[in-house]
Amino acid sequence: MPKENRETIFRYDDTNPEAESKEYIDSLREDVSWMGWKPVRVTYTSDYFDKLYELAVELIKRDKAYVCHQSKADIEASREIARAKIADANAPGDPCSPWRNRPIEESLREFDNMRKGKYDANAATLRLKMDMYSPNPNMWDQVAYRIKYMAHPHAGDKWCIYPTYDYTHCIIDSLEHIDYSICTLEFETRRESYYWVLEALDLYRPKVYEMSRLNISYTVLSKRKLLKLVLSGYMRGWDDPRMPTIKGLRRRGYSAKIMNAFCNEIGVTRNFNTVQYERLAAVARSVLHDSAPRVMGVLSPVLLQLTNWTDVTGLSTTETKVLSVPNFPFDASRGSHDVPFGASVYIDRSDIRLVDSDDFYGFAPNKTVALKYTGYRVHVDRIETAADGVTVETVVATLLREDDHPEWKAKTTVQWVAAASAVNVEVRMYSHLFLMEEPNDATWEQELNPNSEVVMASAKVDPSVWSTLYPADESAEDAQDKGKLRHVQFERIGFFVVDKDTDASSKSLVLNLTVNLKDSKPTDAAAAGSTAGAGAGDANKSRKEEQARQLAEKKARMNIPAEEFFRRQTDLYSAWDPEGVPTHDAAGEKLSKSAYKKLKKDWEKQKQLFESSNKAGAEATA
Description:
Layout: E1 9-12, H1 22-34, E2 41-44, H2 49-61, E3 65-68, H3 72-87, H4 104-115, E4 125-128, E5 143-147, E6 161-163, H5 165-175, E7 180-184, H6 191-200, E8 207-211, H7 223-231, H8 246-252, H9 256-266, H10 277-291, E9 294-295, E10 297-298, E11 301-306, H11 309-313, E12 321-326, E13 336-341, E14 344-348, E15 368-371, E16 377-385, E17 392-400, E18 413-414, E19 417-418, E20 423-430, E21 453-461, H12 465-469, H13 476-480, E22 487-490, E23 494-498, E24 509-516, H14 525-528, H15 531-534, H16 543-557, H17 562-565, E25 573-576, E26 582-585, H18 593-621
Parallel strand pairs: 1-2, 7-8, 9-22, 11-17, 15-18, 20-24
Antiparallel strand pairs: 3-4, 4-5, 5-6, 10-21, 11-14, 12-13, 14-19, 15-16, 16-17, 20-21, 22-23, 23-24, 25-26
C-alpha cells in the first residue's frame, strides 16, 4: 500500500487495571510523539468497555460463552488433560469445565451478578466456548472476563469486571476497521482464536500479519528482565543510558532520526534473527558525523609540560596562544571556535607508554608526536611517574617548529586541552550491557557486564564546549527545550550528548558517550580507565561480530559520496585535493606518491559503491 494511503491508530490495550497506570500511558504517548510518529487518532480499549460487555452478552445468547467457577488451579488441571489428549485421544479425564453446558439463561444471570459485584474476586469468570480438544492451546475456552475490584486509571471505577486482551484485541480491531493487525510471531498461534471470536459475532475480520521480534546483540528486550534490573537498583531507572528502551536510548544520545533510520535499514522479517548492535552504532555515526560539532577532550588527563614554550612562541609560560579550530574539519564553511594553547596542556593517559614499541605512535621516551591544530610537534624528553614507578604524572617535552629536527617524524596527531582553561566534565562511558552476544535465559544475570558504565569524573575539555553546546544565537524555544539532544564529538574518541544531570547555570557538565569513533581502538584498560566504555578492541571481537561490523560499515559507506569520504577522516588527513583525495596526513606531512595513488584507488571504489547504491535505490523507487 502506498505510504500516502497508510494511517496508523495508536491504541492503548488497557484491559488490566493492575498493569496500567497514568505514568505508563503518558510515557508511551511521549515516546511515540518523540519518535516523530503522528497517529490519525489515539484510542483506548477501555473506551469500548460498554460495547465489549454488550458483545459478551451476545456471545452468551449465541451459546458461545458461559460463566465458569473453576479456580485457576482447576483450569490448569483441565488444560493438562487437554494436553494429554493431544498425545493420546484415549487418555483419561474430561478437559471441559463442569459449567460449560449450563443453560444460557443461567450464564446471563450469573454474568450480570459478576458485573454487580456479587462474587468475590476469582470466584467466577466468563469463558468462551471454543474447543477443549483442539491441538491449539489458544482454543481451550479462553477467559473473556474476570473480576477485579479496583478502579481503572482511564475508565474510572464503573467496572469490577474487566475483559482480557485475547477477547478484546480482535473485536477492537474490527470495530476500528483495521486493515492490517500487526503483531509479533508468538501471537501466530492466536490467529485461530482471533478469527473464532469475530466469526462468532459476525464481525468484520481484519488481515493479520505476524513479524519477528527485534533482538539486538549484547542486550535483552524482555520487559520482565528489564524490570528486574530497574527494581534491583542495577539500573537507575527506565531511562538509564544502558537500557534498550526509547527513554534509555534517548538519554544515551540516539536521536529519533537515528532510531527511524535504523528501523528502516533493518526492515521487517518473519525470520528469527539477532541484529548486531554495531548496525545501530554505524547509523548513529553516520548521522552524528554531519551534525555534531567537534571539540577536544581527554578522558584521563595527564599534564604535558613544554619546556621551551617561551623560546618558540615568545610568550610567557602564563600566556596562551589562541587558535582558530574548525567546528567541522571536513567543511570549513560551517564555522570555527577559539581554543587557547599554552605551555602546559592535558593529554590522554591512553596515549602514553613508559616502554616504547614499534607499533606505538603516542608519547614514549624520545618519541615525537604532533599536537592537533597547533602546527607543532613535541619531542618527549622524559616521563615522570609517582613513587610506584608506574603511574604517569607528567610528560616533559620540547616544542618543535616545522623546521626543527625534520628527522624526528610524528606518526600520529593527538588531541589536547590547555591546562589553564580546561573545563572539568564528568564523562560516562558506555559499553555493551552484557558480556555475551546472546545472553542465556538461565544465567543472564551472571552475564551482565560490570564495566557497562565507567564514570570519568575528572575528564577535561576545551572551553569552547559551552558555547558549542549552548550557542548564543539559538532560538528561545530551543534554549528552553530541556529534551533537546545536544551533541559534540570529542576528536579521536567519540560522540557525546549532554545528560539531564547537567546544570548549565552552575557550569556543571555531564556527558554520555553515544557511540565511539570507528578508528578509536583503546587496548589498555588500566591506562585509559575507559576501555569498557569506548568499546572493545578488534582483537577481542568474535569473527561473527567482526563480519557484522564490516557489513554495517559498508552499508553506512553506501550513503557517502566519494568526495566526502576521506574528508570525514580528519584524524588521518589534514588536506585534500578538489576531488576529496587526501594529500597530507594529520600531522601536515605531504603524502608520498605511492600513498596518494593507493588512496585514489580507494576513492574510485567508494565512488562506484555510492553510485551503484543510489542507482539501485532509484530503480527500487521506480
